[in-house]
Specification:
Elements lengths: L6 H18 L2 E6 L5 H13 L3 E3 L3 H13 L18 H4 L6 E5 L4 H9 L3 E3 L11 E3 L2 E2 L7 H6 L4 E4 L2 E4 L3 E4 L7 H10 L4 E3 L2 E7 L2 E3 L1 H4 L3 H22 L7 H19 L4 H6 L40
Helix pairs in contact: 1-3
Length: 320
């Protein structure tokens, strides 16, 4: 066996690691590494390890050879042959190993892993010869560049004027077009203005789940989103069943409730009662007890105090 430090030794070690991970994990996420820097790969690798996952980046030949070994079995003299079990479902994974890709082995829910991968994207300068992922427009207004750098604008036929000793763009100009290669003039111009128009990072292409392949449009679904969509469609089916009169599991409860309300209405109007209605009907209001109000006590007129008889005042016997 070649030494571990050699190129061949690293390939063998990588193959053995992939072989072991294919036997341990049933969920494998395939990501694109186009325009992804080595530092971004390291950042994603660290965040995946927090969820007890593993990101492997290797040559497609090594990946395909190891997957095929899991499908058809190791060589006869390989010690792993004794414990090998056929995994024909890995053929679906093998079809995804196209282009510059990496494999994430994890059992973490994809709805939790996906936001962490996307958070590692970075804005970068436009690169010459690269396909523009989006249309990018520079708004009208001052650029902060002095008139000596007007040649950049002339090369791209951008209308300008000199205002307060700086170049000013007269109208919004689209510099890059989605799907077209970035020219040297466009890249130099955007870098001169300090614009980082494109965001690059790992893109999740698909997910292998125990033989099934799930596309990116389904991987962003969370349990809450699935329940919400299911409830919405269940309400639609119930409404359709109620309208057409065709009973379903979703509408049967509503139909029973509507029928009971009709019976309760007839019972209330016709005076006929039944056990279920009596159990749910509100009790009749108790008769108000009228209590005789105590007669208001007559206010007795205040007794007049007897007038004191005037004392006869004697006149000293003059008239006696």
């Amino acid at each position: 066996m070649p030494p571990a430090g050699t190129k061949r030794g690293k390939k063998i070690a990588m193959g053995e690691k992939i072989y072991d991970l294919l036997g341990k994990h049933k969920q494998i996420v395939v990501v694109s590494l186009i325009n992804v820097s080595s530092s971004q790969v390291q950042d994603v690798r660290m965040t995946i390890r927090k969820g007890k996952g593993e990101l492997l980046v290797g040559k497609n030949t090594v990946l395909n050879k190891t997957i095929q070994m899991r499908i058809s079995g190791p060589p006869e003299k390989d010690p792993r042959r004794a414990a090998w079990k056929p995994m024909p479902e890995l053929e679906n994974l093998q079809k995804l190993i196209v282009g510059k890709v990496g494999l994430i082995f994890t059992e973490e829910p994809i709805s939790e892993l996906l936001p962490r991968i996307e958070s590692k994207k970075r804005f970068t300068y436009a690169r010459v010869g690269k396909l523009a992922p989006i249309n990018f427009t520079i708004p009208a207004g001052p650029t902060g560049l002095d008139p000596s750098q007007i040649n950049f604008f002339h090369a791209l036929q951008i209308p300008t004027k000199i205002n307060k000793s700086q170049i000013e763009i007269l109208r919004d100009i689209q510099i890059c077009t989605k799907g077209k290669k970035v020219t040297s003039s466009e890249a130099a111009f955007l870098q001169k203005l300090g614009h980082k128009p494109f965001q690059y990072g790992m893109a999740v292409l698909s997910m292998y789940d125990n033989g099934s392949i799930i596309g990116p449009e389904l991987m962003s679904l969370t349990p809450a989103t699935i329940l919400e969509r299911f409830a919405k469609h269940a309400r639609n089916v119930t409404a359709l069943s109620m309208e057409t009169g065709i009973p379903t599991e979703g509408s049967i409860i509503q139909s029973i409730f509507a029928g009971f309300k009709n019976l309760a209405a007839i019972s209330a109007v016709g005076g006929y009662t039944f056990k279920q209605f009596s159990a749910t009907a509100a009790p009749a209001p108790a008769a108000a007890k009228t209590e005789a109000k105590p007669a208001a006590a007559k206010k007795e007129a205040p007794k007049e105090e007897p007038k004191k008889e005037e004392e006869e005042v004697g006149m000293g016997g003059l008239f006696d």
